[in-house]
């Protein structure tokens, strides 16, 4: 009898649970206010929203459009020659000369920082008042810290002797690199712990290799895709633990050496031909893993490793209990973030980095805790609506308060913002110090000026650049071996014009040394053209698309474009292939 009652109760609880789940899942479907598409808000996302105080509402736009909005606040792809607005000295900055914020050379900004303050006016909307204040507050000319001889860089940390490199960390002698931790390398994109590499893309622990994509631990190799623990290999894909393979065929050492001798990779013509060969190999021969997720549990997204409970996450490592994040590292409880690293509880923010905790609706803040609606703050705690502050606590609109005053006023402002429908919204697009076309988002989602205007992004006119050149690109020697002493001196003095990117470039002494050492061609284009060309090998569109496994026809989700269909594999088929 008791057993019967207990089982009846269990059945009842079971059906209540099912009913509850159905209701929740119906409740968690939202029509995107921008595209009209329906999207689902997962239980984990809603759990995080509840933790952050937003559990009673649902997001209004799809994660992809949240990424686009947040990414428009991340200055990218450009370095400008301009003046420091404090000292008048020439600087290389990520901001255009016409940037609405005063731009100060970072070291001056750290030393002399004392931005304007304002009282909060309860008769005005928050964002109107914030903008009136923010545009008076100096911001540092670039992101990054603790570098030596890295003037021509951005977002560079703990690095030495780097040049024309962006988003690099603990790197040395890195040129034309992006989001990497490398030594003595050129053209590295998303590469970690690699050395003496040229055009290594999304690679780990690689050495002395050229044009390697999605590889781990490869050495003395060239034009490899998705190979691991391979040495002396060329034009191979999906290989594991091999040596002397060419075109995935096992050769003897002498056969291999004869084969590669036909490819002189220090020649620009030969290198370009090899790149074409590689692209054909990618389309017609190689197999592609639908999602690149390693050593992770309960994760969706792409390009991630060592994550746990991470949904719709891209280009991230060691993160847990997070949803909708891009470029996150060593973090937990992140929701709707881009470029936020090493922290906990970050929500709806862009590039809030290092020792962050409770960073909400903020951008470009470093080592800050308990901040809301802040920008360009450094080592601050408990700040609300602040811009350009260094080492401050309990500030609202940059004005300091006592701890008690701070929390009382903050609560009143939040109530005021809720009434105006501002609370929970990210900054309007014009708060970005960079135009949309010079943002991370413009790479993935290029928009016309009128589309940008409609969406509230900051627009710009293209910079007018007259071609500057003293010599033609065709005059750059095909291989560095052709360079006599006299010709070297001539080359170092020339300016070349990259017509496709409409930018001038030069060849440096280091380029010549590097080309000789690695037996690779000299640069033949503007550095950013090369960075972006390499970066395109990591396809991403803000969400995964549905597809079918090329072997077993099982449904998959992937970032690979449709041109690779029939060669994109589900995880089981992929693991079987590389076993
Ligand atoms: Zn399959």
Q: For the terminal residues, how far apart are their CA atoms?
A: 55 Å
Low-confidence stretches: 17-25
Rg calc: 26 Å
Main beta-sheet strand count, sense and barrel state: 12 strands, mixed
Structural shape:
globular
Strand share of the residues? 25-35%
Total number of helices: 14
Number of strands: 34
> What structural class should be given to the helix and strand makeup?
alpha/beta
Ions, cofactors and other ligands present here are:
zinc ion
Q: What number is the mean pLDDT?
A: 94
How much helical structure, as a percent, in the residues?
A: 25-40%
Give a quick rundown of the structure.
The chain has 579 residues and is of the alpha/beta class. A hairpin with a 2-residue loop joins strand 28 (393-396) and strand 29. It binds zinc ion.
Main attributes?
579 residues; alpha/beta; 12-stranded mixed beta sheet; 10-stranded mixed beta sheet; 14 helices; globular; binds zinc ion
Overview of the molecule:
There is one protein chain. The protein has 579 residues and is an alpha/beta fold. 26% of the residues lie in helices and 30% in strands. It contains 14 helices and 34 strands. Strands 7, 8, 9, 10, 11, 12, 13, 14, 15, 16, 17 and 18 form a 12-stranded mixed β-sheet that branches. A 10-stranded mixed β-sheet has the order 20-21-22-23-24-25-26-27-28-29. Strands 1-2 form a two-stranded antiparallel sheet. The radius of gyration is 26 Å and the shape is globular. It starts with a helix and ends with a helix. Zinc ion binds at residues 549, 551-552, 554, 569-570, 572-573.
């Amino acid at each position: 009898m008791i057993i019967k009652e207990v089982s009846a109760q269990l059945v009842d609880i079971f059906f209540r649970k099912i009913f509850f789940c159905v209701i929740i899942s119906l409740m968690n479907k939202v029509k995107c206010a921008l595209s009209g598409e329906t999207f689902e808000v997962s239980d984990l996302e809603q759990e995080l929203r509840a933790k952050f105080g937003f559990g009673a509402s649902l997001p209004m736009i799809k994660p992809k459009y949240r990424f686009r909005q947040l990414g428009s606040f991340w200055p990218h792809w450009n370095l400008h020659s301009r003046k420091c607005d404090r000292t008048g000295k020439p600087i290389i900055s990520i901001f255009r000369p016409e940037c609405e914020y005063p731009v100060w050379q970072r070291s001056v900004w750290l030393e002399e920082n004392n931005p304007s303050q304002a009282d909060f006016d309860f008769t005005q909307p928050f964002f109107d008042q914030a903008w009136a204040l923010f545009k008076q507050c100096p911001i540092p000319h670039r992101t990054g810290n603790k570098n030596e001889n890295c003037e021509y860089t951005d977002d560079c940390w703990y690095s030495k002797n780097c040049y024309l490199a962006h988003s690099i960390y603990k790197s040395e002698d890195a040129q034309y690199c992006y989001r990497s931790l490398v030594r003595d390398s050129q053209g590295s994109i998303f590469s970690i712990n690699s050395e003496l590499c040229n055009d290594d893309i999304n690679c780990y622990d690689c050495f002395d290799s050229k044009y390697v994509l999605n590889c781990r631990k490869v050495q003395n190799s060239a034009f490899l895709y998705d190979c691991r623990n391979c040495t002396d290999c060329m034009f191979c894909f999906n290989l594991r633990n091999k040596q002397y393979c060419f075109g995935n065929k096992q050769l003897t050492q002498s056969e291999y050496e004869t084969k590669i001798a036909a490819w002189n990779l220090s020649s620009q013509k030969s290198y370009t031909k090899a790149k074409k060969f590689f692209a054909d190999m990618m389309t017609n021969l190689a197999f592609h893993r639908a999602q690149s997720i390693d050593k992770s549990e309960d994760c969706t997204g792409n390009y991630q490793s060592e994550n746990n409970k991470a949904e719709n996450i891209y280009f991230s490592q060691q993160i847990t209990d997070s949803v909708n994040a891009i470029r996150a590292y060593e973090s937990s409880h992140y929701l709707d973030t881009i470029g936020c690293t090493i922290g906990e509880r970050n929500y709806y923010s862009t590039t809030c980095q290092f020792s962050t905790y409770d960073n909400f609706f903020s951008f470009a803040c470093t080592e800050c805790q308990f901040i809301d609606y802040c920008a360009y703050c450094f080592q601050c705690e408990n700040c609300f609506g602040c811009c350009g502050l260094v080492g401050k606590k309990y500030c609202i609109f940059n004005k300091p308060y006592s701890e008690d005053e701070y929390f009382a006023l903050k609560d009143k402002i939040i109530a005021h913002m809720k009434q105006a429908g501002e609370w929970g919204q990210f900054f309007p697009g014009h708060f970005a110090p960079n135009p949309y076309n010079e943002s991370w988002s413009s790479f993935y989602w290029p928009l016309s000026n009128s589309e940008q205007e409609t969406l509230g992004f900051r627009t710009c006119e293209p910079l007018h650049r007259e071609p500057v050149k003293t010599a033609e690109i065709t005059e750059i020697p095909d291989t560095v071996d052709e360079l006599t002493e006299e010709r070297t001196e001539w080359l170092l003095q020339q300016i070349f014009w990259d017509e496709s990117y409409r930018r001038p470039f030069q060849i440096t002494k280091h380029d010549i040394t590097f080309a000789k050492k690695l037996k690779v061609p000299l640069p033949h284009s503007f550095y950013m053209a090369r960075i972006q060309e390499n970066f395109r090998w990591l396809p991403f569109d803000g969400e995964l698309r549905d597809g079918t496994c090329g072997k077993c026809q099982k449904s998959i989700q992937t970032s690979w474009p449709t041109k690779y269909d029939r060669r994109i594999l589900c995880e089981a088929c992929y693991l079987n292939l590389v076993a």
